[in-house]
Amino acid sequence: MSANTNTYNLQRVLRIRDGMAVTIGMIIGAGILRTPGLIAGYLGDPWLILGLWFFGGVVVALSTLVLAEMSAALPEAGGKYVYARHAWGDTMGFVTGWSELLVSRGFSGAAKAVAIAEYVRILTGNRGNIQIIALAVCVGFFFLHTRGLKASSQFQNITTVIKVLIVVAIAAAGIAAGDFIGFQPALTEASGPTAGLLGFALAYQSISFAYYGWEDAAKMAEEIKDPGTALPKILVGGALAVMVLYLLINVAFLGVLTPAEMAADPELIAALTISSVFGPAAGTAVTAAALIILLSSLNVNFLGLPRVAYGLAQHRLSPQAFTKVDDRGTPRNALYFISAWIGLLALSGSFVFLIRFMMTVAIAVDTMVLLGYFKLRAQRPDLERPFVMPGHPWLPAITIALYIAILAILIGTQPKMALGAGAMLSAILIGGLVTTRSRVNKSD
Q1: Half-sphere exposure of 370 (CA within 13 A, CB side)
Q2: Which domains, ranges and CATH numbers included, belong to the chain?
Q3: What is the DSSP string of 417-444?
Q4: Which of 1, 49, 219, 356 is disulfide-compatible with 304, CB 3.0–4.6 A?
Q5: pLDDT digits over 110-153, tens only?
């Protein structure tokens, strides 16, 4: 294999269907397989459960519309960090990009690797160590992505089709054959300290994790054909499709399981649903199928994150080594870094902690990025916008207000987690200030 890393650039090879596969592939995965049981335990009531899933989808849809305008106007590799840099300057671009590398996507990739390890242990009779299996999964994905974008995107297209078919099959089976026991009032009480505002906060963290990835196709803007037209279709269409699927599958779960049963075995919720309808053998088959879903979801972390590092490096906000692309279109050095970081985090073996921490950081950063919509409108009114956010200025303002309210609830109900997230963001901010000032001094 050639390893020349000095003469190659990112290539525009991705179509709308490829971008949709990335979007749906990133969103559907560990979240919908692992979080419904957690959410059922936090909320207890089936209508609250469905209502919060719907609310999460609405927030995602609104966020997608805001981001679609920025992504179409600024079709550069790197996603949200690009919009933060253009709106707020290099320091906040640094914070956005590195928080995504180190926390939002690094932690989510590790959480998915841990979930994959859990499913492998279930299928092998609880054999093996979760941390070691998770690390081995990360190593395997590293080698897949050394084969280039075409190989990894083909893998994504195939596994996305499979995962959508699986999710639809589970939803159809639960809705068609279930007696909707989960909607019986006597069986729907929330428990203990998780009821109330804390229950909402914990449940929303899990739901936002399940939806996270709605913007991932924007990271590959320099590799999408006709990005000004294609990106909004990819982002909005992918988000809406996933919301419908999530509501259907939660109705299916509640069709055959009570919220308490969902909470008792969150790793096996899909298998329990199918087992209740078709028997244990079918449940085992669904567990194996769920493993495919998880693998497809983790694949997009390895697909998108090296390109965030690449975009940062293009603007000297990360090591210049990350700009080097090999002859297969892979930012190879960035892939080395991302693979090592996700593998290290996966050694924690804690799915719940990983998603709670990452979503606290992600929601804080996303609030700042979305505020950049108004900053760009004010500073660059003549910027060409192939897609325009509908309902300006009220709809984007409502979207940002929702983010601020959610963030306040998370901080108020989980102060220790918020302090840890704040410390991480402060460290990244200091790194951004040092990096940008050093760059200014060198230019002088």
Answers
A1: 26
A2: 16-437 (1.20.1740.10)
A3: HHHHHHHHHHHHHHHHHHHHHHHHHHH-
A4: 219
A5: 999 999 998 899 888 878 789 999 999 999 988 887 776 666 66
